[in-house]
Design a protein that fits this description.
The complex is a heterotrimer of chains A (about 300), B (about 290) and C (about 300). Chain A is an all-alpha fold and about 300 residues long. Helix content of chain A is about 80%, strand content about 0%. Chain A has 15 helices and no strands. The C terminus of chain A is likely disordered. Chain B has about 290 residues and is mostly helical. Chain B has a domain of about 190 residues: Orthogonal Bundle (ABC transporter involved in vitamin B12 uptake, BtuC). The relative contact order of chain B is 0.15. Chain C is of the alpha/beta class. Chain C is built from eleven helices and 13 strands. The radius of gyration of chain C is 20 Å and the shape is globular. Classes of the chains: A mainly alpha (about 300), B mainly alpha (about 290), C alpha/beta (about 300). Bound molecules: adenosine-5'-triphosphate and magnesium ion (MG). Magnesium ion binds next to α2 of chain C.
Chain lengths: ~300, ~290, ~300
């Protein structure tokens, strides 16, 4: 039995997959805290789809995959910023327009110049097929991201919470904005190979939202999110070995399950806790503890 | 010269053009409401969330479209419920729910051996569409279009001022779920015919183009439909010559129209804004 | 029909509202209003004014208590188009692609057929309502292209077109200048004289004694309810607002006829309430004098 449970650890491939997932899960979870607070949840989705034309162009020109992806992601983010500031269209619609356009351009390029990039790899990821070079790339991206966040999290937090205040105390809001976008794009690119474009958004949203339900402190929120990101990724990758199913899928299903549990059971902001609290205060009122009701027409003295 | 008309010699091209135009029209009508209601990415969410329904329907042998439709409704419904019962913002909830469902679909999909191609669902191609799918898509799209046009004023009031809608005795819950059901049904029909990218884009861009150009809802509907049909026709036509992905060509045509509208729109365009800025000091004729 | 409508009253009894997050925003609120009255709803921020409105409009279901309109539950009252409502400006998407005319016609939706095609009657009433708020010339403007006061008047016209018997206005005086305020008040008075019940939530304490017959003071429950003269007193205000009011007690007053040289100024955030000696409400007098002076030449 034990032997059976330990069997995934005998495969290099699995060890590698678990390591990569945990790393990506941790970094994404760290950024997800800012993403949820800033209301950028769909930015992850958008950026991870918008990288496709960059990827195909990079392949055509023989450049590194990550470079093309990154440039095209940033370009998409800039387009969004421009359209949003110049028109009266809401942010969500702007995001939608830009990323579908980029994605369509990418798909068109792939259909016109068939190369050895598989759209499937971009959309669904392939963690078991990751090459050593890719792992190094991810390691570098992750370390840089973590370093920047570790040094600058207070500024980034203030920027997410209240950009005007950040500007007022003399922070360079533009730089912070671009920094956050860059980190997001870089992480999305790194995560892309592991879990694919559609599921990157989950890793960039779910841990942060779960932690947000569990605590009111940012520091704690970050820790909870990262612990959750790392653990769910490890366990998800491990489980996927046994159920023989898509690794990214398993990780994200697990994350969603944790979110739903937190949604119901969270001590203060959970559905059940709120319900109990409402019932308790209504019963307290009925038995007449705080505030005496006044008969209509009377004046309370 | 003959080369220009070449595509029209093929029956399948004509059919593809018609289906693309019809689906484009329905999506355009829907997109106007989605843009105004702030639900632009609901289309994205639902079109991903249909996956587990499709796989489940395949396993139990039910019609795939039915599974997809129900699964889309689950996505929309649970997004609404979680939003009202927690402090998490709507877009975040949407992201969590649809990726969760999509991941579930992926896991289930990798467990069953099907002859349904995931690629076929996600990147469906207009030119390779099967007869039965095409009929299904046409029927669904026509019904959806009729419902939307018949109830357009109620839905407009619902998007504009829900409270007033309730106060004059409208059933807003019904309208809410009606809009979501029509959306899900349209997405299911569109996915089979044109694929996921085009579906998502068609549910956002035409509405935005129209919103940039007009300040009246009826005109907005008209502009959205025209731009969608136009880009469907042009995109399909161009893709024939380019020999590239049809859906992508349509999306890119739409994007081009959007850019044109953004620059040239009479009142809200970039050029108009510049003209107004230059003609300052502004004189406004308010009493 | 109309004489039946005249008899519509509003009874709020023991209403307790809890939101999904478990917060009880309002408890055991009771009061009742008879036709032909303007009633002010005052209280600090977060005291539950909007929540009370939501309960009357049926948007939140009370966990306890009932709201009855002419003896009917709110749902039934909505079907009869009895309740009209003027939203808070912040709640409206002003870039929405509808014109003034469209908005006023929306007031008639409850009377129209399935396809909401306006009939001659609907158009006539909408037109009359626009005339009544003096907005006819702006009929084809997009709603965002109006000034704050004009926006308010459009939604008032919608309520008129709806022919509601109970009109709820959530903070109608924010961002409205003195003149428009006067016009809105005059209109509300006319409506009262037609037998409408008008419930106004406001932070503008100074105008309350000027045009409201009755006052409901709330802070998570109804603290006091009754005619303005007896209820809208310094003590009750202090009770409802606690320390939230700016309270200036001046030793000298120029108000003629004040018996003692003492004047109390109570202000929330907008119009100040001036209380002379013996609890006399001064601002109303001042405004009436103004208007007389204005209409003389
Ligand atoms: N949708 C909601 N969910 C949870 N709590 C709410 C909701 N709406 C209001 N509340 C809470 O209920 C209380 C009463 O709010 P309400 O909007 O009725 O206040 P108000 O008297 O209208 O205040 P204001 O003068 O600021 O308009 C507040 O404490 C508020 O936080
Ligand atoms: Mg309020």
């Amino acid at each position: 039995m034990i032997e059976y449970l330990l069997s995934p650890f005998h495969y290099d491939l699995m060890l590698k997959a678990m390591f990569v997932s945990a790393m990506i899960g941790g970094v994404c979870a760290c950024l997800s805290c800012f993403v949820t607070l800033k209301g950028w949840s769909l930015m992850g989705d958008a950026l991870s789809h918008a990288v496709v034309p960059g990827v195909s162009l990079a392949y055509m020109l023989g450049l590194p995959f990550a470079l093309g992806a990154f440039v095209s992601g940033i370009l998409a983010a800039l387009c969004m910023g421009f359209i949003k500031s110049r028109t009266r269209i809401r942010e969500d619609a702007v995001i939608g327009i830009v990323f579908t356009t980029f994605f369509a351009a990418g798909v068109l390029m792939i259909s016109l110049y068939p190369s050895n990039i598989k759209l499937n790899t971009i959309v669904f990821g392939n963690i078991l097929g990751i090459a050593a070079g890719d792992i190094w790339q991810m390691l570098i991206i992750s370390s840089v991201t973590m370093l920047v966040v570790a040094l600058k999290w207070r500024d980034l937090l203030l920027h997410s919470f209240d950009p005007n205040q950040a500007r007022a105390i003399g922070l360079n809001v533009g730089v912070l904005h671009v920094t956050l976008l860059t980190l997001l794009a870089a992480t999305a690119v790194a995560a892309l190979q592991a879990v694919g474009a559609c599921l990157v958004v989950a890793m960039l949203v779910t841990p942060g939202a779960t932690a947000y339900l569990l605590t009111d402190r940012f520091g704690r929120m970050m820790i909870i999110a990262m612990v959750m990101g790392v653990l769910t990724s490890l366990i998800g990758a491990y489980v996927s070995f046994f159920v023989n199913a898509s690794t990214g899928g398993c990780i994200v299903v697990l994350q969603t399950a944790v979110f739903l549990t937190a949604l119901m059971l969270a001590p203060k902001h959970g559905v059940i806790a709120s319900w109990l609290k409402g019932r308790a205060s209504v019963t307290a009122l009925m038995t007449g503890v705080p505030g005496e009701p006044v008969p209509s027409g009377a004046v309370m003295r | 010269m003959t080369r220009i008309f070449e595509p029209f010699q093929y029956g399948f091209m004509i059919e593809a053009l018609l289906v693309a135009a019809l689906i484009g029209a329905v999506c355009a009508v829907l997109s106007c409401y989605l843009v105004l209601e702030g639900w632009s990415l609901m289309g994205d969410a639902i079109s991903h969330a249909v996956l587990p329904g499709i796989v489940l329907a395949y396993i139990v042998g039910a019609p795939l479209a039915l599974g997809a439709f129900l699964s889309g409704l689950v996505c929309a419904g649970s997004t609404g419920w979680i939003k009202t019962h927690s402090r998490v913002k709507e877009d975040t909830v949407m992201g969590i729910v649809f990726t969760g469902l999509f991941a579930l679909g992926l896991v289930m999909f990798s467990r069953v051996q099907t002859d349904v191609h995931l690629n076929h669902i996600l990147f469906g191609s207009l030119l390779g569409i099967e007869r039965s799918d095409m009929i299904q898509a046409t029927v669904t799209a026509s019904i959806a279009l009729c419902v939307m046009l018949a109830l357009r004023k109620d839905l407009l009031l619902y998007c504009f001022d829900q409270n007033h809608a309730k106060v004059v005795g409208m059933n807003t819950t019904f309208l809410h779920y009606l809009l979501l059901s029509v959306l899900s049904a349209t997405i299911v029909a569109a996915l089979q015919a044109v694929g996921i990218i085009l579906t998502v884009a068609m549910l956002i861009t035409p509405g935005c183009i129209a919103y940039l150009i007009s300040d009246r809802f009826d005109r907005m509907l008209l502009i959205a439909v025209i731009s969608a049909v136009f880009s469907a026709l042009v995109g399909t036509y161009v893709s024939y010559f380019l020999d590239g992905a049809t859906g992508s060509c349509i999306v890119l045509t739409q994007a081009l129209l959007f850019v044109l509208a953004m620059v040239l729109a009479p009142k809200h365009g970039l050029l108009a804004a510049r003209r107004i800025a230059r003609a300052s000091p502004v004189t406004v004729d308010l009493p | 029909m109309d004489h039946i409508a005249q008899g519509i009253d509003l009874v709020v009894q023991d209403v307790t509202v809890a939101y999904n997050n478990g917060h009880v925003a309002l408890h055991d609120a009771s009061f009742s209003l008879n036709p032909g009255t303007i009633c002010a709803l005052v209280g600090v921020n977060g005291s539950g004014k909007s929540t009370l409105f939501k309960a009357i409009m049926g948007f939140v279901r009370p966990v306890r208590g009932t709201v009855r309109i002419a003896g009917d539950p709110v749902k039934a009252a909505h079907k009869k188009n009895w309740v009209a409502y003027v939203p808070q400006s912040e709640d409206v998407d002003w870039s929405f692609p509808v014109s003034v005319w469209d908005v006023v016609l929306m007031g008639r939706y409850g009377y129209m057929n399935f396809l909401r095609i306006p009939g001659a009657q609907d158009k006539r009433l909408a037109m009359e309502s626009l005339e009544r708020v003096k907005m006819t010339e702006f009929k084809d403007r997009q709603i965002g292209e109006l000034s704050g006061g004009q926006k308010k008047r459009v939604f008032l016209a919608r309520a008129l077109a709806q022919q509601g018997r109970i009109i709820l206005l959530d903070e109608p005086f924010t961002g409205v200048d003195f003149k428009t305020e006067g016009a809105i008040i005059a209109l509300l008075r006319e409506l009262r004289d037609d037998g409408h019940i008008i419930l106004v939530s406001t932070h503008n304490l100074g105008t309350v004694p000027e045009f409201c017959d009755q006052v409901v003071m709330i802070n998570r429950t109804v603290l006091a309810f009754g005619p303005t003269e007896t209820t809208f007193t310094e003590e009750n205000l202090a009770l409802a607002f606690g320390g939230a009011l700016r309270h200036l007690r001046l030793d000298h007053t120029d108000v003629p006829g004040a018996e003692r040289n003492e004047l109390v100024v109570l202000t929330d955030d907008e119009g100040a309430l001036v209380v002379g000696a013996g609890g006399r409400l001064e601002r109303r007098k001042a405004r009436n004098d103004d208007q007389k002076a204005g209409s003389e030449p």
